[in-house]
Amino acid sequence: MAGPDKLRDPASLRRLLSPRSIAVVGVSANVTSFGARSLTNNINFAGPVWGINPKYAGQEMHGRPCFGSIEELPEAPDCVLLAMPREGVLEALKRCAAKGAGGAIVFASGYGETGLAERVAEEAVLRDTARALGIPILGANCLGIVDHVLKAGVTFMPEYPRMTAPAGGVAITSQSGALGYALMQAAERNFSVCHMTTAGNATDLDVCDLAAYQLTMPECKAVALAVEGLRDGRRLFELGDRARAAGKPIIVMKLGRGEAGAAAAVSHTGSLAGSAAAWSAAFRRAGMIEVEDFDGLLETAGFFAKAGKPSAPGVAIVTASGGAGIMAADHAEALGVPMPQPSPKAEAVLRAAIPDFGAPRNPCDLTAQAASNPASFGECVLAMAADPHYGVLVYPQVYSHFQTTPGRIAEIAALTEKAGKPIVVAWIPEQLEGPGAAAADGSPVVPLFRSMRRLMKAIKLWNDHYAPQAAPAGAAGANVAAAVAGLPGGNATLMEAEAKALFAKVGVPTAEDRRCATAEAAAEAATAMGFPVVLKLDSPDIAHKTEVGGVKLNLGSAAAVQAAFAEIMASAKQHAPSARLDGVLVQRMAQKGVEIILGGRRDPQFGPMLLVGTGGVQAELWRDVALDLAPVSPARAEEMLRSLQGFPLLDGFRGAPKADVAALAQAVAAFSQFLAAAGEKVEEAEVNPVIAGPWGCLAVDGLVRCGA
Q1: pLDDT at residue 122 is higher than 70
Q2: What's the CATH code of the domain at 585?
Q3: Rounded distance, CA 635 to CA 394, Å?
Q4: Contact (CB, 8 A) for 159 and 185
Q5: Are β-strands 625-629 and 583-588 bridged in parallel, bridged antiparallel, or unpaired?
Q6: Same domain, 211 and 318
Q7: Closest to 70 measured CA to CA, from 116, 10, 21
Q8: Across 218-306, where does the E strand assignment appear?
Q9: 8 A C-beta contact, residue 600 and residue 269
Q10: What is the pLDDT of residues 503-540, one digit of tens each?
Q11: Mind listing the pLDDT tens digit for each residue in 294-311?
C-alpha cells in the first residue's frame, strides 16, 4: 500500500471554514430555498454576506445585497456557497477561483453516491479541478458548516440563529450532514459548541482534514467525530498525531459497524476479525476515544472538554439519594471503574456532616437531610475531592426544581473550581430539559450525562485514554526480512509444514514435524521422535484438518500410527474426494497448556491487523479475541492477552500452573512484526493453536495465504 495523502494544512482552510465574508451563489426569492436559508442563517454574522443571482442583481435579497455574478462582488469572498444544481457547479467553481475565493461549499448531490460510473468520473473531475486551481471544496452533497464563534451558519438547515449557546468547548465533524446538524442542535439546550463541519461525499476535504482544522481553534477543547468511511483510513493516524500535539482529545463514532464488509477468509482469523474491529483498532492506534452509541458522542466529548486529565482512577459518588448511589455503583462495577473507600481523613468529615442513617462511605449518601443543612453538601464534596484516591466525583441530580436545581448546579461549578477535579452530574429526572440542565450544559466546567451507564463508560474511557501506553514496536530484524523475501508470489497458500517453518524463522517457537507419504514412513518417524505423537493430514487443499477427521492425537505405538494413517486417508477422501492428499505430518505431542489463536489478515483500509484470542477448534465459538494493527511491542501484546476473557486460564485458573505470559507475548510481537513487514504479500496468516504453559509456548499448527 502506498502511503496516504497528507492532511490539508489547516491555515489553507481558514477562509473556507471560519470565513470573514460569505457569498451565496443561487439565492432565490423563495424563503425556503437552500440559498435563501443560507442567507438568513447569517443574520448574526458580523462580516459581509452577498447573494448572487443575475435575476435579482442590484436588489436586496432577504436583507442582503444581491449581485449578478461572482465577478461583480466588491472583494474576493472567503467562503462561497454553491446553492445550485450539479450541472453548473464545475463552471461556478472556476469562477470562484478566478475571483480569489477562499473555498467553496457544494450542496449539490447526484455525484459518486449514485454509483453511476459517469457520475463518479464527474466528481473526480470536480476534485482534480479544485486541486489544480488551489481552491478547497467542502462537499459535494453536504450540509455546510457552522462557525459558532463567528455566528456563521453557512448551511441550509433552518433557524440556526436560534442557537444562542455560548461558543466553545466541542467541535463537531460528521460525514453525514443530518447527523452533524443533529449534534449541533445541542446548542439549543445551551451546550457549548464552537464549530460544526459536514464532509458529505468528501470530494476534496474529508473528515480528517476538517477535524485537523478544528484542533487549531483556540475555543476547541475536544472534537466529536462521526465517520462513515475514508478513501484511506490511515489518514486517521496523522490526525491522531495532530490531536496529541494539540493536547485535545478526539471522541469518535464509526457509523456502519456491520461485518458485511469483512472479506471471505480461509482461516478462523477472517471470521473473527471483521471490518468494525479493524476500525476500532485504528482508532485506538490513533489515540482516539471511540464510543459506540450516537447519543453518547457529544456527552463524552463534552466531558473530555471539561474534565482535563485524571489525577487518579477512582470515582467518588456523592448523592442525596441512596437509590441513585446504588445505581451509580452498579454501573461503575460493571465497567470496572474503581470505587475505593474514602481515606480516614475524608471519612471523618463525612461522619460529622451526615446523619447516622446516611452513609459516610463511597457511595456517600447525604440523605434528604442535606437540604436542611446546605453547608454539608460542600463540606462532603470537598472532603472527597481532597482524597487522593479519587480523580472524579459523580453527583446524581435526582429531581428538577426551579427553586433549587439551578443553584445546585452553580454550587457544583464553584466547588469544581475549588476542588481542582471534575464533578460530573448524572441527570436522573425524566424532565430532560428541566431547570438546571441548561446551566450544566453551558458551564465550562460541569459535565452532564443523561444516562448513568454512559457517564461511567465515559469515565472508564477517560481513565484508559490517559493511562500510560505500551511502548511502540521496534524495527523488524533481519530474520523477518529474510522470511518475507522468501514468500512465494501469487495466491499461494502455505500449509502447516511450510507455515511453521516460516514462523520459526521470525521468532515464533514451533513444534518439530516430519512429512510422511506412507503409513510405514509415519511409523518410523514416530518411533524416531518418541511417543506419544500426533498425526495430521498433509493436504494443500484442506485448511481445517479437524473438519475432515484429519487429526489423530496421543498415538502411543507404531501400530497405532499406521492405523491412524489409514483412518485419516479414508476420512479425507470421504469428506473431500477431489482434494490432493500428500500424506501426514508426524509431530511429537506437545506438553499440556492453554490453547491460544494467533492470526493476522490484511485489512483493505489499514493494512496488516493482528488477532490474539482463546484458540483451538472452538475459536470461532468463543470469539474471545483482541485486535490491533501490526506491529505491536511485547508490552502491547501482553496487554492484548490480559484483555481476553480467557486470560485467567493463562494465569493459573483454579490452581493450574501459570503460563509464561512474557514468552507468549514475545511470540505474539514477533508474529506481528512478520505481518507488518509482509504487508500486501500476505493476505492471511494463522497459528492455531499456540500452546502456552509454564515452560513457554509452542506453535503446533499454521497457515499462510499469500496475496496476489
Answers
A1: yes
A2: 3.30.1490.20
A3: 33
A4: no
A5: unpaired
A6: no
A7: 21
A8: 220-227, 250-254, 289-290
A9: yes
A10: 999 999 998 889 999 999 999 999 999 999 999 999 88
A11: 999 999 999 999 999 999
In a domain, 481, yes or no: no
Residues 259 and 371 in one domain: no
State the DSSP code for 359: B
**Is the torsion defined by CA of 149, 152, 157, 158 positive or negative?**
positive
371 & 456 share domain: yes
268-287: burial string, b at 16+ Cβ within 10 Å, e else: bbbebbbbbbbbbbbbbbbb
**Is 644 in the same domain as 573?**
no
Mean pLDDT, residues 571-592:
91
Task: Output the CA–CA distances (angstroms, integers) from residue 586 to 86, 239, 249, 476, 686, in the order listed.
Answer: 67, 51, 54, 32, 20
Residue pair 181/458 in contact by the 8 Å Cβ criterion: no
Percent of the chain with pLDDT over 70: 95
Mean pLDDT of 332-338: 96
Q: Give the bridge partners for 379, in sequence order.
A: none
Residue 476 is assigned to a structural domain of this protein: no
Is there a single domain that holds both residue 547 and residue 615?
no
* Cα 665 from Cα 669, distance rounded (Å): 6
Sign of CA dihedral 61, 63, 66, 70: negative
Range of the domain at 657: 594-706
Asked whether residue 487 is assigned to any structural domain, the reply reads: no
Encoded amino acid at 531, one letter: F
Rounded Cα distance, 615 and 686, in Å: 11
The burial of 578, by beta-carbon neighbours within 10 Å (0-12 exposed, 13-18 middle, 19 or more buried), is given as: exposed
For the chain, give the mean pLDDT: 91
- How many domains does the chain divide into? 4
Residue 101: alpha-carbon gap to chain centroid:
35
Q: Which band of pLDDT confidence, cut at 50, 70 and 90, is reported for residue 546?
A: confident
**Residue range 11-32: mean pLDDT, rounded:** 95
Q: Which residue has the higher pLDDT, 436 or 267?
A: 436
- 337: three-class secondary structure by DSSP: coil
Q: What is the pTM of this model?
A: 0.89
Residues 129 and 192 in one domain: yes
CA–CA distances in Å: residue 632 to residues 3, 271, 528:
20, 22, 39
Residue 456 and residue 366 share a domain: yes
pLDDT digits (tens, 9 = 90+) for 374-408: 778 899 999 999 999 999 999 999 888 887 788 89
Asked whether residue 497 is domain-assigned, the answer is no
Which CATH number goes with the domain that contains 665?
3.30.470.20
Single-letter amino acid code for the residue at 636: R
Amino acid at 525: A
pLDDT at 659 over 70: yes
Looking at the structure, do residues 295 and 329 belong to the same domain, yes or no?
no
The residues with which 595 forms a beta bridge, in sequence order, are 691
